[in-house]
């Protein structure tokens, strides 16, 4: 009896011990598997068999008063990204992505947006200085079947901007399905510069997205332990999976746009050659800067110029990123991932290109020393300053013409970035230090790894509109949709905000 009484607890203990061992092995094995299988690399695995397509320049007509009018139609479509496998897509004026809009400083532009989708969306002009009612954010929804016709006068330096939907809470899925395009601006101050500028020849738009296919659609599910959002297992440039491009000039300008929903890239070349950084989000730098890598988080742009040698092939690549997390967080948020993006094939003889100008453009961004007011923005998932996005709440009221110093702090364990509508700002400090060259130009979006504090000088040139807010937000689109967004209005000195929230749209 005594034996029996002792053997039951013993058997239970042995059973429990065995169970725990199996559990530990399963969990440990699972975790090891999850960890080791989570990094993605396409280095050496892309065959570069498809010619890179270049989005067409959008047609426009110029009206009697000089207004340049564009048409954008949001449509559903299908594309065979992979031979024989059809993927359901959305696009502007086509199946996937959209045409490149192009206008010059001083020009009045109007865009007729037609929404042929079966749900409401919007079109936001990312990086553009526009009146708030023309901004295309969540307060300017375009209903299914509806139209919207914003117009404004371009008044900012030459730059590589872009456009994409911004519907409240659904930006990620609309961009993921293919709604994005470039908006290039030119100006007289820089049009005479000896820079590669033949669109599609020695001046190439490079829209980079990561993608994971599932059935006839895109997989937008977030992997376990991923804080940043859905990460793809391969990449596309201008909607092409394995692109090459033959180039015929010694110098080639690449206008890099990270149009991904969550992933950050660290752009460089397969032989680690250096390139010249000539522009950032809001336009040209004061002078070209030599770099071997530039990191861009979602929404950011960079213009780079690379020198080619006759007959060679070199691959535009994304190397491991500086994500500011421990080895675990780095692995599960794409920090260890590497991609072969695009092969550049130089012709056997190249047209000579003039040397890059020593001076490019005079910056027009605000100066920190002119700041008359400071504000602080604490980023924590999925809030800014502890608040979730509310269409009916104005978070900040700023005065037209004033310069402010905004401190943006990532007080969170995960990466974020920060985008401000309507403005181009100057980074004044990063963790108390002067900005790196990559952050030395005009910016509208900046990456903030965990623990980063950035001070940016920003001026609100107006026009004032106390009724209509602009957005500031994290451009990791899952974070944005989850509530990491706030609203500001620009008022005349002494003015007060008067918010009118649009009617609910299905
Ligand atoms: Cu690129 Cu508020 O967006
Ligand atoms: Cu924007
Ligand atoms: Cu974020």
TrEMBL record:
Signal peptide range in chain numbering: none
Plastocyanin-like domain sequence ranges: 76-188, 371-491
Family indicated by similarity: Belongs to the multicopper oxidase family.
Tree of life domain: Bacteria
Gene3D superfamilies per UniProt: Cupredoxins - blue copper proteins
Metal-binding as UniProt keyword: yes
Transmembrane intervals: 12-35
Pfam family, one: Cu-oxidase_3
Keywords: Membrane, Metal-binding, Oxidoreductase, Transmembrane, Transmembrane helix
Protein name: Multicopper oxidase domain-containing protein
């Amino acid at each position: 009896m005594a034996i029996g009484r002792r053997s039951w607890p013993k058997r239970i203990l042995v059973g429990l011990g065995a169970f725990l061992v199996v559990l530990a092995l399963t969990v440990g094995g699972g975790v090891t598997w999850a960890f080791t299988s989570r990094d993605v690399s396409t280095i050496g695995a892309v065959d570069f068999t498809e010619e890179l397509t270049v989005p067409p320049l959008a047609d426009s007509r110029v009206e009697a008063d000089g207004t340049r009018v564009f048409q954008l139609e949001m449509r559903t479509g299908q594309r065979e990204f992979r031979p024989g496998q059809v993927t359901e897509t959305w696009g502007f004026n086509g199946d996937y992505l959209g045409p490149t809009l192009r206008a010059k400083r001083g020009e009045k532009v109007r865009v007729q947006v037609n929404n042929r989708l079966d749900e409401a969306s919007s079109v936001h002009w990312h990086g553009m200085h526009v009146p708030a009612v023309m901004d295309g954010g969540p307060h300017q929804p375009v209903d299914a079947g509806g139209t919207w016709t914003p117009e404004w006068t371009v008044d900012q330096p030459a730059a590589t901007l872009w456009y994409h939907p911004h519907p409240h809470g659904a930006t990620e899925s609309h961009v993921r399905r293919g709604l994005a395009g470039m908006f290039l601006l030119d100006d007289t101050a820089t049009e005479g510069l000896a820079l590669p500028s033949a669109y599609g020849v020695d001046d190439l738009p490079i829209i980079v997205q990561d993608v994971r296919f599932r059935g006839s659609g895109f997989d937008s599910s977030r992997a376990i332990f991923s804080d940043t959002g859905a990460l793809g297992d391969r990449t596309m440039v201008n909607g092409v999976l394995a692109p090459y491009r033959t180039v015929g000039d010694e110098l080639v300008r690449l206008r890099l746009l990270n149009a991904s929903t969550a992933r950050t890239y660290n752009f460089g070349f397969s032989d680690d050659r250096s390139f010249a950084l000539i522009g950032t989000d809001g336009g040209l730098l004061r002078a070209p800067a030599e770099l071997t890598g530039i990191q861009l988080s979602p929404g950011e742009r960079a213009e780079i110029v690379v020198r080619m040698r006759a007959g060679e092939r070199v691959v535009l690549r994304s190397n491991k990123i500086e994500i500011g997390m421990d080895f675990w967080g780095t692995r599960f948020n794409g920090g260890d991932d590497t991609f072969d993006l695009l092969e550049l094939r130089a012709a056997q003889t190249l047209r000579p290109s003039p040397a890059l100008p020593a001076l490019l453009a005079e910056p027009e961004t605000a100066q920190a020393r002119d700041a008359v007011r400071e504000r602080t923005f604490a980023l924590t998932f999925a809030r800014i300053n502890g608040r979730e996005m509310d269409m009916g709440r104005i978070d900040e009221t700023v005065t037209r013409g004033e310069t402010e110093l905004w401190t943006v702090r990532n007080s969170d364990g995960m990466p974020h970035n920060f985008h401000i509508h309507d403005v181009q700002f100057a980074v004044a400090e990063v963790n108390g230090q002067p900005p790196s060259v990559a952050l030395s130009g005009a910016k509208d979006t900046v990456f903030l790894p965990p623990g980063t504090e950035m001070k940016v000088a920003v001026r609100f040139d107006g026009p004032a509109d106390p009724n209509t807010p602009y957005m500031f937000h994290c451009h990791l689109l899952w974070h944005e949709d989850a509530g990491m967004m706030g609203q500001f209005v620009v008022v005349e000195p002494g003015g007060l905000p008067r918010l009118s929230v649009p009617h609910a749209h299905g």
